[in-house]
Amino acid sequence: MKDIWYGKPYYSLDAYCKNTLGHKYYKIALNAHMTCPNRDGTLGVRGCIFCSAGGSGDFAVETAGKSMRKQLKEGISRFGDKKVGHHFIAYFQAYTNTYAPVGYLEQVYREALSCPEICGISIATRPDCLPDEVLSLLDRLREDYPDKFLWVELGLQTIHEQTAAYIRRGYPLSCFEDALRKLRALGLPVIVHVILGLPGEDREMILETIAYLNRQKPFGIKLQLLHVLRDTDLAVDYLAGRFEVLDKETYLELLIDCLDHLSPDIVVHRVTGDGPRELLIAPLWSCNKRDVINSLHQRMRRGQNFQGKFYSE
Asked: Measured between alpha carbons, how far is residue 10 from residues 15, 22, 190, 260, 310 in Å?
């Protein structure tokens, strides 16, 4: 296991790409200029409680007036002075990236898939925004680009309905399960987003979410630290003293717990979060992402922790 994990104590996206695709891959975050049912009035107008005005796409290529092709070109150019090769994932990150007319979705997806340097696309969306016509489009694209991959990222965050109501997720757990079933039937790998440190959730509740996902067996998981961004409703509650964010030590302990209980077959796409410095209110220690990851690896090796240590079928 350690050999195929390239020295890390968990099955990282980097290891998966090297093992399965033959190369290290780099993500280019994109903004396809969409919106979200939690913002356009369908479900609400204020978004999820933690979501910034950028729709969780604050690290996307600066997009004002720029086409998808131009975003891709600029994103690739950012790696031009590094010896990283030419293997990129087009990451449709900002807002809900299946929430648009199918004709427009097909246009932007094909622009990315047709780019020679792009080896696949990853589409961040909501489980309640995958109607049959969108699923049919994804199935067609999978067939039309057999040498490239399509991944779908679903923002679950938690399995607990009380927390989901607080963060204004806007759909029940059954909706997530239905979307996962349909995507799996099409052979489309699913990456699930989970937030650690949500107000009101303790260690046991978070491990229940991990145990649930072990049973669902998605392709990948993103373990995201809760961070508080300016001009969000979460920031209002935080500044009013209604909850506290995790300190670094507590987060690392919780993260290691999650990895210890996570199936070793699930690819770990993220182990922390780093909101934009100009927007981040707390926790400020998360800005030093390299330190967080190095500390995680050191702690896991010192404690002989590894992904799946306490996992059983």
From this structure: 9, 19, 18, 9, 13
What distance in Å separates the CA atoms of residue 112 and residue 141, rounded to the nearest whole number?
11
User: CA quadruple 21, 22, 27, 33: dihedral positive or negative?
Assistant: negative
Q: At what angle do helices 248-261 and 289-302 cross, to 10 degrees?
A: 60
Instruction: Output the furthest CA–CA distance in the chain (Å, rounded).
Output: 52
Residue corresponding to tokens 């909101």: 275
**Cβ count within 10 A of residue 104:** 12
Convert the pLDDT of each residue in 91-139 to its tens digit: 999 899 999 999 999 999 999 999 999 999 999 999 999 999 999 999 9
Enumerate residues 6+ apart whose C-beta is below 8 A from 290.
none
Q: Is the pTM of this model over 0.70?
A: yes
- 169, 157 in Cβ contact below 8 A? yes
- Residue 264 pairs in a beta bridge with none
